Amino acid sequence: MRGLRETRTTAVENLSAPSSPPAASAMTAHPTRRKILLGGFCLCCLPGAIRASDAGPFAMEEIAEGIHIRRGLDEEATQANENAIANTGFIVGRDAVLVTDPGGSLADGECLRATIAQMTSLPVKYVVMSHVHPDHIFGASAFLKDAPVYVGHARLTEALRQRGAYYREKLSALFGPEQTGTVVLPGMEIRDRAEIDLGSRIIEVTAHAPAHTVCDVSLFDKKTGTLLPADLLFVQRMPSLDGSLRGWLKTLDELKNHAAARAVPGHGPVAVDWPSAPAAITRYLTVLERDTRRAITEGTSIEAAIKTAAASERGEWKLFDDYNTRNATEAYKELEWE
Asked: Which of 16, 43, 141, 211 could be 181's S-S partner, Cβ–Cβ 3.0 to 4.6 Å?
């Protein structure tokens, strides 16, 4: 297959800590309410949703034939929700199952695995980790016993080596190491584009240039015309910038040209119309870019600029105040030296 390299799947208990962890001001003193912002911990609230801490399978919605998605909670990661805050799910083919983002903790991943076992006897052959952020990857170790192929961007391994131990430490402080899980490295690295055959069902995997993060992949199910862009698409919940502002806008433009019938955002409703769904996130990122460029042109300091950039978007997003300052900081650093 074009654009991928096979390597050995590895579970990693301890990886090198990030060279520059977040400032102390980015966290509160109480570990269950920390805003772990390095790498965009997605802290998202959905009243009445099934939490990962509930034993056994959880509720999912079949958004297209054979595609089952669990909506993540719009909350911060806490001991109670065990980081079950991202949309996660699986795709069933004739011969095998592909997991699309395995959840935010071992406990979350175990619930997903139990749900799959309840709904199909087919084996889990692939587990896709869409990017480095912990709410999308820490459930991966729940599937090690199935010996699947773990799939990720070619830059995901390095990102996990830089951040994995730090993420695991912070998650363990929230709900204990036994519920956190290990860091799992991808065994199939996507550099451009590849296809996965589940049996009468082809899933196209695309590696993107830096956008939401430096290691985003998206999925496209050719059978149903369903696009799964993960955190390249946020709906209702505030986006988190950890890659490239300009790159993210460019990637969204490229994705809009995809002939998809629907999309599954990384956070928000389990399925949205396409290509209209990216309108809100495109608007936010465009406003952030415009305001940041203006501040730089006028000689406004970064300390002052981050207080006002994209402020007009405050009423449009959940958790705006938790993430906009960080987004504005990243935008200023990127645009200042272009």
From this structure: 141
* Residue 245 in tokens: 């502002």
Q: Which two tokens stand for residue 320?
A: 């705006």
- Single-letter amino acid, residue 111: C
Span 29-235+251-275 CATH architecture:
4-Layer Sandwich (3.60)
Q: What are the residues whose beta carbons fall under 8 Å from the beta carbon of 211, sequence distance 6 or more? A: 232, 243, 244, 247, 248, 250, 251, 252
pLDDT digits (tens, 9 = 90+) for 106-152: 999 999 999 999 999 999 999 999 999 999 999 999 999 999 999 99
The β-bridge partners of 185 are 10
- Asked if residue 123 has a cis previous peptide bond (ω within 30° of 0), the answer is no
Instruction: Read off φ and ψ for residue 12, nearest 5 degrees.
Output: -120, 120
Which tokens go with 63?
Answer: 């958004």
Q: Model pTM?
A: 0.85
- Residue 269 in tokens: 């409703």
H-type alpha helices, the chain: 106-119, 156-175, 177-180, 245-256, 279-297, 302-305, 320-336
**82-107 pLDDT per residue, tens:** 888 899 999 999 999 999 999 999 99
Across residues 179-183, what is the average pLDDT?
94
Q: Average pLDDT of 29-40? A: 31
Nearest in space to 330 (alpha carbons), one of 228, 248, 262, 272? 248
> Who's near 53: CB < 8 A, 6+ residues apart?
80, 81, 82, 107
Q: Buried b vs exposed e over 294-325: b needs ≥16 C-beta within 10 Å? A: ebbeeebebeebbeebbeebeeebbbbebbbb
